[in-house]
Amino acid sequence: MKKITKQSLVTFSLLSPGLLAIGCLFFYPLFIIIKNSLAFEEEHIFYHYIKFLSSSNGLYVIGLTCLLAFGATFLSICLSILLILILRRKPIGHNFFKTLVLAPITIPGLICALGLLLFWDKNGWMNLIIQGIINRPIQVNYTIPGLLIFYTWLFFPYTFLITFSQVESLDKSIEEAAEVVGANRMQVLRYILLPLAKPGLLAGSIITFMLCFGAFSVPLICGGDYRPLSVSIYTTSAIYNRWDEGSAMAVIMALIQIFFLISYIRIMKRAR
Amino acid sequence: MHYAKKVLIITFLLCITIFIISPFLMIIVTSFARGWFGTQWMPQEWTFDWYQWAFQVANIGAILKNSIIIAVLAIAMSLFIGMATAWAIARRPVPGKEILFSIILLPRMIPPITYALGISNIFYKLNLIDTYLGVSLAHVTLCLPFGILILSSTFEGLDQRIIEAAQVCGASRWRTFFHVILPLVMPGILAAIIFTFTTSYNEFTLTIMTYGPHTVTLPVKTYLAIGDGYWEVASAISTILLIPSLIVLIIIQRLLKPEKIVGGFKGV
Fold first, then answer.
1. What residue of A is the nearest CA neighbor of B198?
2. What per-residue confidence (pLDDT) applies to B259?
3. Does an H or E element contain B34, and which?
4. pLDDT given for residue B38 in this prediction
5. Contacting residues of B for A91, CB less than 8 Å apart
6. How far, CA to CA in Å, does A217 sit from each of A151, A259, B92?
7. Residue range B151-209, pLDDT digits in tens
């Protein structure tokens, strides 16, 4: 009995530095935000929440954030599936390609944002190509489709890499067996490959989704007038100095994220 | 038919490659360009002026120093704190391990901007804003979960039989630790250092809420330069920032094979 207590004491003292750090640097700040967001002087304690959620701007900001996150996640899934179908057959340079998609992950988001702004600018290379086709430049920067493209560019590697590692570990003979019994290519994709790759696809896309939802540096620079939740929180509190309102928005953002996370995990469990 | 398909696939891959690489190429070209206006593929004149600006006016040298000091402090703190916790999670019976793990990973699941407000609030009261310690502590919030995740998977991969074998051969506890355990977990520790370094070096959200005139890091400086409209100088700063990121990219690809990260001995 004595030995067990001593052992668990050692385990606890080993665990404590990490837990203490997370508590001080994450949970305590969260507690402070929740405390700041409550209006003790106003007639209603949830005054700032009600004010934000009942304003047209509040709903617009939440809608915009969800639209960008869902849209970019969907585009990432499509792009990843397409790429995986091609790269699975190991064409020339597939290793180079796997390194290439690491670039948006390892390079700071801010640099990526600057590069994307320059590349999609009215005088950028992309518009030079487009002008060669339709004879006039198109506005991509500071628009919603532009933000969707930027988000996809930045965050699709997570979906791609995780799904790809799952597909690579699949047993090739399953596919061959399906082909032997007469399944055509589409059937193999629809009934064999996609269901088998589904756990990877879900796990990868949830990371893409969470990053899109919380993206900060990219919409801050490339958003223009479109300010998703993260940027709105920053401008409300740090620039307009309305910390209580900003804190209420931060709590709402965290709650939405947790809600999506839990629903995603449920879907994932069902998929397994 | 087969040939046409091959050409189609290669074209598609080439397009995606261009799609991914071009923004970086454009930053590099812009940082050397003078008077690059209108519809031109390449600038007419090339110059090093923007780099000179970056070093003389924007004081990049001092900012690079800040970034590296903050990153080193953040790595040291994260690994120091994370090592013990990761060891306990990986190799000791802990009740509710999954819940504990998800609590530790929570800072990476919730958008940093949400708790960044709280962190800056607390740091203001503790006078930690605009100090190296303050900014690096803020970075630890994001680096620590990453560190614990990588380290615990490394420690899990350690084979108990090897440790027992060393003890059977008469090695003392310290000898076992320094000559057996440490060499085995070194790749994992290196991986943790690399990932925490990139996290801290690239971190922007928490930095912008805790920085001050003395602790401007490279990402913050890039942001300020873009905000002021100096895109060429911002490009020059970004090109300088790109170099460590590319080195890390090569290291990840070349040296850190996933099987190395998990201790290498799992299947003995």
1. A106
2. 40
3. strand B33-34
4. 64
5. 6, 9-10, 13
6. 11, 23, 40
7. 998 888 888 888 888 889 988 888 888 888 888 888 888 888 888 988 898 899 999 99
Q: Is residue A15 part of a domain?
A: no
Domain membership flag for residue A222? yes
Per the domain annotation, does A118 fall within a domain? yes
| Encoded tokens for B103 | 């609590």
Whether B92 and A11 lie within 8 Å, measured CB to CB = yes
Dist. CA A6–CA A19, nearest whole Å: 20
Return d(Cα A175, Cα A171) in angstroms, integer.
8
C-beta atoms of A216 and B113 within 8 A: yes
Mutate which of A78, A99, A118 to disrupt the B interface (most B C-beta within 10 Å)?
A118
- Print burial letters for B113-122: b (CB count within 10 Å at least 16), e (below 16): bbbbbbbbbb
B46, containing H or E segment: strand B45-46
Q: For residue A3, what pLDDT band results from cuts at 50, 70 and 90? A: low
Give the residue-averaged pLDDT of A166-176. 81
Nearest to A247 by CA among B220, B120, B13: B120
Closest listed residue to residue B205, CA positions, set B263, B261, B135: B135
Interface probe with B: pick from A6, A14, A82, A259, most Cβ of B within 10 Å:
A14
Q: Domain for residue A6, yes or no?
A: no
**Is residue A54 a contact partner of residue A48, using CB atoms and an 8 Å limit?**
no
Q: How far apart are CA B154 and CA B132, in angstroms?
A: 30
**Boundaries of domain holding A146:** 44-271
Q: What is the CA radius of gyration of chain A?
A: 23
DSSP per-residue codes, A131-173: HHHHSS----TTSHHHHHHHHHHHHHHHHHHHHHHHHHTS-HH
Chain B nearest-CA distance from A176, in A, is 20
C-alpha–C-alpha distance, residues B39 and B228, integer Å: 24
Residue B35: its pLDDT value, please? 77
Helices assigned H by DSSP within chain A: 2-22, 28-37, 47-54, 56-87, 94-100, 103-106, 109-119, 125-134, 144-168, 172-180, 185-187, 194-214, 217-222, 229-234, 243-271
C-alpha span between A42 and B102 (Å, rounded): 36
| Burial grade of B227 (CB within 10 A; 0-12, 13-18, 19 or more) | exposed
Q: CATH number for the domain including A224? A: 1.10.3720.10
Is the CB of B62 inside 8 Å of chain A's CB atoms? no
Instruction: Name every residue whose Cβ is closer than 8 Å to that of residue B97 and which is 6 or more positions away in sequence.
Output: B89
Residue B81 C-alpha, separation from nearest chain A C-alpha, in angstroms: 6
pLDDT in tens, A151-169: 999 999 989 988 888 888 7
Domain count, chain A: 1
In order of their start, the domains of chain B are 1-47 (no CATH), 59-261 (1.10.3720.10)
